[in-house]
Amino acid sequence: MLGGVIFTIFQGSNLDSKAKQWRLAADFMNDIGMLMDLISPLFPRLFIFILCLGSLARSVTGVASGATRAALTQHFALQENAADISAKEGSQETAATLSGMLLGMLLAKLTSGNTVAIWLCFLALTGFHMFANYKAVRCLRLTSLNKDRVKIILKTYLQNGKVLSPADVSTQEIVLPRFSTKFTGYESLLHKEVTLGAKISTVNVPGGWKNFPEMMKRSATDNYIITHQHREVLVVLHRNSKREDYLKSYVHSLVLISLLESLNPEEAEENSFVWMEKKYSIFMSELGAVGWNVNRIHIVPDKWRAEWHVSAIKDLKVE
Length: 319
Fold this sequence. Notes:
The chain is mainly α and about 325 residues long. The chain is about 60% helix and about 5% strand. The strands form two sheets. It has a three-stranded mixed β-sheet. A two-stranded parallel ribbon has the order 1-5. Mean pLDDT is about 85; it is low at about 180-190.
């Protein structure tokens, strides 16, 4: 029980954005929990400890499976019929459980008294269960936008101007969850990190804080301030920023990281603003055209926010 609470504290905000990954992880954890229960009698001195590990695995399974079921139900409810989808999913699960019980009783009778056969059956069926779940998750073509999907889409778009469809992206997604909410990129983006929702006090303004008004003026029409320092891109979010701003600032960060591969920091930052002004709206239109739901944004920033008056910045004069 305590394990489920701790898991929710640290990963609850990621269950929507990583529904596929945590759905698969929940099934794996359930299998691990059953394995712990079965092997616990083999280790009398560690009996309680192993049982606790099994209980911990099942508690995480309960939280993750319940939360991701709700998220995936929304994906399948194409006609706003989430209740209908949920009811049918429950009926299918009941039918599968009854069938499993009948086959389990038959298998128990056939393997009664044969320890080797029991373990072979358990391991074989567990392996098949994990493989089937992996293939099922691989088949999911979610149309919502999270960090990983945006990363994959934008990398291809910056290379050849093509926007990948949900089907294309699903083949490249990692299906096991990362336990960090920080940015970890692909290939050439590995050496950079994005902090979305950074503290404004962590921003290192080039030339000192006297140049901060100029930095803010560049973001006069946005609900975020973006800057690059050392090996990190920092995004300070306005307190009124919304999911659309999270997506825009994250795309801006990835564009900046890409430009930093070939330009110095000053040129890269300037060109990133030009790219956002000229191409971001086109990019978003093309996302919708190939099947992405641009209204379902699951990008989770850090908790820090700042406040500034956008209207005042537009008229700001820097001397």
